[in-house]
Amino acid sequence: MKNIFKYSLFLSFALALASCEKFLDIEPTGNSIFIEERGDTIFRTANEAEAALSAVYGDFQNEYWQLDWLVNGDAQSDDAYAGADNPSNFQIDDYRIVATNSNVSRDWAYLYQTIGKANLLINNVEVTPDASFSEQRKKEIKGEASFVRAVMYFEAVQLWGDVPLQLKEVTSVSAAELDEIYPQLYPERKPMAEVYEQIIADLEYALANVKTTQPHKGFATKGAANAYLAKVYATIEPKDYNKVVEYCDAVIAGGYSLLPEFDMLWNNENENSPESIFEVNYAGTASDANWGSSMFRGTDWKKFNIPSNDLVKAFDDENDMIRKNASISFEDVTGKWSDANWPANSYPFMNKYRIITWPSPQNYILVRLADIILLKAEALNELGDVNGAAQLVNQIRGRADLPDTQASTQEAMRLAIEKERRLELAFEGKRWFDLKRTGRAIEVINNAIGPDGNKFGYNLTQNGLLWPIPQSELDKNELLTQNPGY
């Protein structure tokens, strides 16, 4: 009876949408996107395919990448407190997320929305019947869409673990196609290993087909594909550190270079710099502006992602003033608000994203060379090359005018690299995922110190390492299962 009811509802939905099976511009539902059928092709011209690719890249300007990406990577770590007054962010910060958390449900929707758009290109661009549309460009577009799909699935698998692996779009609905279409609309979760296998396949296709250089760093390139392959192989289980070194080396040999001064990355005078590998670009117009930067800095209202006492202490203990000053700004907010963690006359803000006036042209750097250099150091250390790892760590420390690392054993170097990544990449959405992939999250988070120098009081458990599947998705898809502890 349950299945009869389910299929009756689905059929009613299908018939209500279209008696003739064809429709256009319907919002994504679940993990799929409905589009208009046009005979045997989706895209009739090269311009239509290029416009669809622009829409895929345009999703890097949505709320996930303007706001939530940084909440997930930094407020969910020991680098930042949630700040502001959003209960959903408080749950993430305190490791007490529930399945109805609004951030969790919208992030799922954002990621799968982009996956749906990418699927449309991946599955259809090569049969576009435009004689002026070269086969090379078709493969480039498919490669760029494959890169974006891989990035979205990499985000999803790190947040939720096993996730639905949806690789096809639904183009029409009819009773005759019901058995085929239903699993596409409401898929089951796939094991993490299978998801990572697809991520790697997408990135390898991208690597073989995208361009080496683009007009700016906001597009998929061979360097960006190499960088994400390195990150994936450092995250999957079991990790493949030889692959990490291989892909890091490809990035390092790809024409990138560190900027001479750390603050040059954040002074907004060097966007799409030689250090940047993949960067979300904004024009600073009313229709192409980054509102996210104003969520993290400014004295008009209490902001998100307030730097933690534990992070400030880490900078001070290392006497790392160059990166501290570039990353954190202290201001007087007396009379504006109070905070249990910081005095009003010396209140910290994230300082890497500094253009908060509207419309803001503030870019976000998603991946840069220093990240990859330190990732290679991590891989070399795990492969037993402690001296090689030290040379790379010292390269990053040298730019911050810090002395060479004193770590001389593999275990000491592990901690030195962890610290170096923290200070170098603070407020770049990396810390939580670094701690998770190295198996250090529970120990580090639960020992973070608060304003009084004692443990802050976090209680992260094994179940808290993954997010709950959104309740809204469970309600409409009986094949989905919930993560343990939720």
Describe the structure.
- The structure is a single chain.
- The strands form 4 sheets. This protein has a two-stranded antiparallel sheet with strand order 1-5. The chain has a two-stranded antiparallel ribbon with strand order 2-3. The chain has a two-stranded antiparallel sheet with strand order 4-8.
- Mean pLDDT is 93; it is low at 1-37.
- The chain has helices spanning 2-17, 46-58, 63-75, 87-94, 102-124, 135-160, 178-185, 192-209, 222-235, 241-252, 309-317, 321-327, 369-382, 386-399, 410-425, 431-437, 441-446, 471-476, and strands at residues 80-83, 163-164, 189-190, 276-280, 304-307, 328-331, 347-350, 364-368.
- Helix 8 (192-209) runs antiparallel to helix 9 (222-235) and helix 14 (386-399) runs parallel beside helix 15 (410-425).
- The chain has a single domain, classed as Serine Threonine Protein Phosphatase 5, Tetratricopeptide repeat (Alpha Horseshoe), CATH 1.25.40.390.
- With 486 residues, the chain is mainly alpha-helical.
- Pfam families: SusD-like_3 (PF14322), SusD_RagB (PF07980).
- One of its GO terms (cellular component) is cell outer membrane.
- It is found in: Cell outer membrane.
What is the general shape? globular
Number of strands: 8
What is the mean pLDDT? 93
CATH class bucket: Mainly Alpha
* Tally of separate domains: 1
Can you list the strand order of the major beta sheet? 1-5
- What does the oligomeric state look like here? single chain
Biggest sheet descriptor = 2 strands, antiparallel
Note the total helix count. Answer: 18
> What's the order of the H and E elements?
HHHEHHHEHEHHHEEHHEEEHHHHHH
Label the structural class.
mainly alpha
Distance between the termini: 28 Å
